């Protein structure tokens, strides 16, 4: 008997995918919403700016470390029920953040919200794949990661604008409202019949993480992310100091970078549906080339925006095929594998920013971070080409983004 969550071939459940994307946007915006408000928080709660920065770093660490643990503990919960429960917890965490009278309580509220992040994103990916017809599943993943892309582009600016206008607590109330809207959208538009793979257990999902293909995909995610984040973590100083852009122009360029990532995400999903291996190698190559271009033209003002948009496009285009690769390698229904890949993205961010800071401390010119990042991403491209060629040979042909049900 056909699974009731399977849609007719060629039909995309647009309303359901849009609801998932909206919810991911609401949840992921919380990660970026306080970026421009740390000074306000530090003044109001009487802590240093460095201490206030823990609201960002602790969030990222919690996502990376706590996410897979929460996912493993919730393997027996139905996808829609789990998504709604996580959204409810997330909304409650932001209410606590808005009302927090002290910094420790605010940090605790942020940590509670962060615990929902990875598992929610993972279960949304699994639901999107289960709802989509064969041949369109990387595009379905792109819907979900598109919500993250929008959060990257809009979450920080919107959160900063709201906080500057009405105080930083208003940002938490806005995120809470967005979570409630996402909750209602998922409740109304996502079919309750969507299911996980039958017989899923925490032990089984953990076992999938030991597969060589999954480990390889996770490694490529972390390394490629570290490569471009090695530069991006310091892109504002690069634009200001090396390229000579002013504050307003820097803000515009960062917005263009985000738009490039959003466009790349949509393109990456479509391309991965046609060929996973070709898309991954092509986008890794483009990303390495764009990083190298940035290193070469860091002091040439007219060329820098082009390189920056290319980095955004290529890095965004990698998200859907990387998620499709790890999900397919895990057997098609492992939310834990997707959560682990989310952790790999966050660990890559941390490794890249740490590596970039060490190079700068050693006296390396800030423009040279582009060359260093290009070398790291090029290494990831070589590993990908070798690994997927072997997989294609074992499968007797082409490697697809197809994810078994």
UniProtKB/TrEMBL annotation:
SUPFAM superfamilies (alphabetical): MFS general substrate transporter
Start and end residues of each Major facilitator superfamily (MFS) profile domain: 16-391
Subcellular location: Cell membrane
Entry protein name: Major facilitator superfamily (MFS) profile domain-containing protein
Entry keyword Metal-binding: no
Superkingdom, taxonomy of origin: Bacteria
GO cellular component terms, semicolon-separated: plasma membrane
Membrane topology, as annotated: Multi-pass membrane protein
UniProt-recorded Gene Ontology molecular function terms: transmembrane transporter activity
CDD domains noted in UniProt: MFS_NepI_like
Gene3D superfamilies tied to this protein: MFS general substrate transporter like domains
Transmembrane segments: 54-75, 82-101, 107-128, 140-158, 170-192, 213-235, 247-267, 279-297, 303-319, 326-348, 368-388
Name of a matching Pfam family: MFS_1
């Amino acid at each position: 008997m056909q699974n009731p969550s399977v849609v007719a071939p060629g039909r995309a459940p647009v309303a359901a995918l849009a609801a998932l994307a909206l919810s991911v946007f609401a949840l992921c915006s919380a990660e970026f919403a306080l970026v421009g408000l740390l000074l306000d928080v530090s003044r109001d709660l009487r802590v240093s700016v460095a201490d206030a920065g823990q609201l960002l770093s602790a969030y990222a660490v919690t996502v990376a470390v706590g996410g897979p643990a929460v996912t493993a503990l919730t393997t027996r919960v139905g996808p829609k029920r789990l998504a709604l429960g996580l959204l409810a917890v997330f909304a409650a965490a932001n209410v606590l953040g808005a009302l927090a009278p002290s910094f420790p309580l605010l940090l605790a509220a942020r940590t509670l919200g962060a615990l929902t992040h990875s598992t929610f994103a993972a279960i949304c990916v699994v639901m999107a794949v289960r709802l989509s017809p064969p041949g369109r599943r990387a595009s379905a993943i792109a819907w979900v990661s598109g919500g993250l892309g929008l959060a990257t582009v809009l979450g920080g600016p919107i959160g900063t604008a709201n906080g500057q206008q009405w105080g930083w607590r208003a940002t938490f109330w806005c995120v809470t409202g967005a979570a409630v809207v996402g909750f209602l959208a998922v409740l109304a538009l996502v079919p309750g019949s969507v299911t996980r793979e039958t017989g899923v257990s925490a032990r089984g999902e953990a076992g999938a993480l030991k597969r060589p293909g999954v480990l390889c995909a996770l490694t490529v995610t972390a390394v490629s992310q570290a490569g471009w984040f090695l530069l991006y973590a310091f892109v504002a100083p690069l634009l200001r100091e090396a390229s000579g852009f002013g504050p307003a122009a820097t803000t515009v360029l960062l917005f263009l970078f985000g738009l490039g990532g959003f466009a790349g995400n949509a393109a990456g999903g479509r391309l991965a549906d046609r060929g996973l291996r070709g898309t991954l190698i092509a986008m890794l190559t483009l990303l390495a080339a764009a990083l190298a271009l940035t290193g070469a033209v860091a002091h040439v003002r007219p060329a820098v925006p082009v390189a920056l948009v290319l980095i955004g496009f290529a890095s965004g285009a990698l998200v859907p095929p990387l998620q499709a690769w790890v999900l397919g390698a895990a057997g098609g229904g492992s939310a834990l594998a997707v959560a682990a890949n989310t952790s790999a993205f966050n660990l890559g961010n941390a490794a890249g920013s740490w590596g970039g800071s060490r190079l700068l401390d050693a006296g390396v010119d800030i423009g040279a971070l582009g060359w260093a990042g290009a070398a790291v991403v090029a290494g990831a491209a070589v590993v990908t080409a070798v690994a997927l060629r072997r997989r294609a040979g074992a499968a007797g042909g082409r490697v697809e983004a197809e994810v078994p049900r």
